[in-house]
Sequence to fold (328 residues):
Amino acid sequence: MFGCQQVLIQSSPELEFICSEANKLNNQGIYYARQWYLKTGKFVSKFDLNYQIKHSKHFQALAAQAAQQVLGSVFESFKSYKGLVKAYQKGEITDKPRLPNYRTKGGLAVVTYPKQAIRLNDGIVKIPLGLMVKAWFGLDAISIPMPPNLDFAEIREVRIVPRNRCFYAEFVYRLPSISVDVESANVLGIDPGLNNWLTCISNVGTGFVVDGLQVKAVNNWYNKQIAIIKEGKPQGFWSNKLAAITEKRNRQMRDAVNKAARSVIDHCIENRIGTIVFGWNKGQRQSINLGTKTNQKFVQIPTARLKDRIAQLCEQHGIRFVETEESY
Fold:
């Protein structure tokens, strides 16, 4: 199991260039994979995808391993599509899947560097750049401070993530397993909601509620600010102020998710609860109909992210996580 720590890094022309080239390479890979499938009815292999595009200027603009990671993500998206097609044919899903679509033209994409591609010198992580970047910018690497609380030996990869006109370095590392004294027969049932974000009841006589009003308030304030700024502006309008407001709201949501998930796991450890049953309706965001205002509040609450975070912590602590239909 892996964890991730983000570090805000200073924007630069080099970062914008490699992320824009990653976006173009991603679209180039999607185009080739789509054409291969439409003409042959078969899915392209990872080897063929790399072999056919390795001479592209977008591929060569990135370090080789980073470019391979970009095309690897394209291959994985088509692999997922293949699995969805099979599930649709068997009647396991109702919505017909669509071929992976292109990314926004002129956008920025994540660039991933595996551990083998990076180096650590005097507390500074060196991220390699492609030959084209070296020729144009006179740089062969980007320097990023190593987080002092992480061990470089445990790092598995580093991602350059463009988000809301900022750049982040994400350090992905292996999480150690934690042994806790729990009993699998002790079960905590979780029912997600809106005002009460999580209602938790166990079969050992305990229960608690994770309040959702603060998360709702953050989203309401965010929506008001966005509406005021966008009033009278053309569709698709965006600005640095909007990006800053959105990034602040996203950080607040991540903090709320982490704290709520931690409170659930701490309750389980304290009461020796070894099984969590999470009530969840797949597709509820798409099919929900609670009125326009309530719909907006509901779909903006990151309950799915909270569910995934709880499942991740359960895996780390050896607690069984079960996802079931909410009606049960």
Q: What stands out?
A: Residues 285-292 have pLDDT under 50 and may be disordered. Residues 240-270 form the longest helix (31 residues). The CA atoms of residues 23 and 104 lie 8 Å apart. The first strand starts at residue 2 and ends at 9.
